[in-house]
């Protein structure tokens, strides 16, 4: 690994601080984003700054890039219109990423979902691969 990659790996570990960003295309996620609102008070001339957290829930279409430059695209339907938003994985404005459902897909980029609506746009939920042993029958 060269010097640039080692520095980038150190920055990624410093930015994550125990937060695991473990999701893949096809997963339904809720991304909590910090929204900063700045308003200027007309009387005093001071700038007021407010922060709030806004949730964006949708399906992950894909991940691009690597290291600090990694992004992911989330698509949701809002009032019958498709809305896509691209988030940097290690951005300080992304408060948290919560995986709601794991999707079973066979592609890395799900751009074909843009043209589908209704039942055709559904993604099958990924089932646990752990096998459950049946209890032994008693006589």
Give the averaged pLDDT, no decimals. Answer: 86
* CATH fold node name: SH3 type barrels
Question: How large is the radius of gyration?
Answer: 20 Å
Q: Report helical residue fraction.
A: 10-25%
Poorly predicted ranges (pLDDT <50, ≥5 residues)? none
Please describe the topology of this protein.
Blueprint: H1 3-16, E1 28-40, E2 47-64, E3 71-78, E4 81-88, E5 94-101
Antiparallel strand pairs: 1-2, 1-5, 2-3, 3-4
Question: Could you name the key traits of this structure?
Answer:
mainly beta; SH3 type barrels; 5-stranded antiparallel sheet; extended; 139 residues
Task: Characterize the structure shown.
The protein has 139 residues and is mainly beta. The chain has one domain: SH3 type barrels. 10% of the residues lie in helices and 40% in strands. It has one helix and five strands; from the N terminus they run αβββββ. It has one helix at 3-16, and strands spanning 28-40, 47-64, 71-78, 81-88, 94-101. A five-stranded antiparallel β-sheet has the order 4-3-2-1-5, with no helix packed on it. Strand 1 (28-40) and strand 2 form a beta hairpin. It starts with a helix and ends in a 38-residue tail after the last strand.
Question: In brief, what are we looking at here?
Answer:
With 139 residues, the chain is mainly β. 10% of the residues lie in helices and 40% in strands.
């Amino acid at each position: 690994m060269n010097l640039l990659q080692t520095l980038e790996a150190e920055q990624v570990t410093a930015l994550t601080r125990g937060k695991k960003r473990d999701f893949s295309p096809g997963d339904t996620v809720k991304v909590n984003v910090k929204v900063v609102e700045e308003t200027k008070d007309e009387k005093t001339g001071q700038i007021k700054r407010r922060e709030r957290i806004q949730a964006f829930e949708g399906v992950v279409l894909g991940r691009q890039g690597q290291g600090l430059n990694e992004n992911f695209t989330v698509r949701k339907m809002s009032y019958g219109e498709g809305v896509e938003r691209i988030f940097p994985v290690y951005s300080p404005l992304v408060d948290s990423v919560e995986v709601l459902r794991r999707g079973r897909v066979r592609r890395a980029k799900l751009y074909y979902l843009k043209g589908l609506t209704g039942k055709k746009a559904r993604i099958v939920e990924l089932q646990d691969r752990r096998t459950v042993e049946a209890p032994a029958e008693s006589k």
